[in-house]
């Protein structure tokens, strides 16, 4: 049996991955292609979507293709897994006569750094998936596709047109939520830097509130509140955030960012209006 192994973070999976798999099946004449999501890429320090979720997305993407098997081998290890381990697992379980290992052209330059590279090279034949017109040795097999799509770039500038329809809603929901979390963390960190006190954030996305998130912080006085306002405006505008409206007073500053509301309140106003209790107990009108 001739097989191909296509591993990666798939964070998120996209149509470029589908194109690579489809073309590999045709061009390499394999009987099976193993798609293997990493738990954590050996050359990266973190992931965005959890490994189990990425595995489930891939299973949904390829469920109707009998020549594709999504392996959870690396996911189950719950650690960084070098390709040599996955290859040996496939050899032991499936006993293939030949294994093609598909790698992106951008990874080719790092190939010599892979664990047990010489042994890996003796067990597989490398196949290059072209990327960004990167030049690779002519003698290597290549999959002829035109799919310069980067998962990392998709996360930064999310474009749903590159996400397969069968997982589009789930992927959008996850990364939208993830992006909101990072934005809130950024606001909280900025407020911490300038000595705001008792900073709290509230996720209102499931409560049919007029914004998705609310951040509340206590100021040390009027000057401090205005200084916090100026600092947030300067830092957040530089990161692409927009302010729809800003209400200023000596005791209470409100920044309306469309989907996030920030309250900067004096201790007296914070105690008097107790907004956190209102937000915690808020229920959708229909409830």
Outline the fold blueprint.
Blueprint: E1 2-8, H1 15-28, E2 32-37, H2 51-61, E3 68-70, H3 73-77, H4 83-94, E4 98-104, H5 105-108, H6 117-123, E5 125-129, E6 141-142, H7 151-156, H8 168-193, E7 197-203, E8 213-218, H9 222-237, E9 245-247, E10 252-256, E11 260-265, H10 267-273, H11 275-281
Describe the structure.
- The chain is an alpha/beta fold and 287 residues long.
- The chain has two domains: 2-163, HUPs (Rossmann fold, 3-Layer(aba) Sandwich); 184-281, 2-Layer Sandwich (Beta Polymerase, domain 2).
- Helix content is 40%, strand content 20%.
- The chain has helices at 15-28, 51-61, 73-77, 83-94, 105-108, 117-123, 151-156, 168-193, 222-237, 267-273, 275-281; strands at 2-8, 32-37, 68-70, 98-104, 125-129, 141-142, 197-203, 213-218, 245-247, 252-256, 260-265.
- The strands form two sheets. It has a six-stranded parallel sheet. The protein has a five-stranded mixed sheet with strand order 7-8-11-10-9, with helices on both faces.
- The model has no long low-confidence stretch (mean pLDDT 89).
């Amino acid at each position: 049996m001739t097989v191909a192994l296509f591993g990666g973070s798939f964070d998120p999976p996209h149509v470029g991955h589908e194109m690579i798999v489809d073309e590999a099946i045709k061009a390499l004449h394999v009987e099976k292609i193993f798609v293997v999501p990493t738990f954590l890429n050996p050359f990266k320090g973190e992931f965005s979507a959890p490994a189990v979720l990425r595995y489930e997305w891939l299973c949904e993407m390829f469920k109707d293709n009998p020549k594709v098997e999504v392996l959870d081998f690396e996911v189950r290890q719950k650690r960084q897994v070098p390709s040599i381990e996955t290859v040996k697992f496939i050899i032991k379980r499936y006993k293939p006569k030949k294994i093609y290992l598909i790698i992106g052209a951008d990874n080719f330059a790092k190939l010599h750094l892979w664990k047990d590279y010489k042994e890996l090279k003796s067990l597989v034949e490398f196949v290059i998936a072209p990327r960004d017109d990167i030049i690779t040795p002519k003698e290597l097999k290549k999959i002829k596709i035109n799919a310069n799509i980067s998962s990392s770039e998709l996360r930064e500038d999310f474009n749903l047109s590159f996400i397969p329809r069968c997982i589009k809603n789930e992927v959008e929901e996850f990364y939208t939520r993830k992006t909101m979390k990072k934005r809130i963390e950024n606001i909280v960190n900025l407020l911490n830097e300038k000595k705001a006190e008792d900073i709290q954030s509230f996720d209102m996305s499931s409560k049919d509130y007029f914004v998705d998130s609310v951040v509340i912080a206590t100021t040390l006085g009027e000057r401090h509140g205005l200084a916090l306002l100026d600092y947030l405006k300067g830092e957040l505008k530089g990161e692409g955030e927009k302010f729809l409206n800003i209400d200023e007073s000596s005791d209470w500053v409100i920044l309306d960012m469309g989907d996030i509301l920030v309250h900067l309140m004096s201790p007296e106003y914070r105690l008097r209006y107790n907004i956190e209790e209102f937000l915690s107990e808020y229920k959708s009108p229909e409830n």
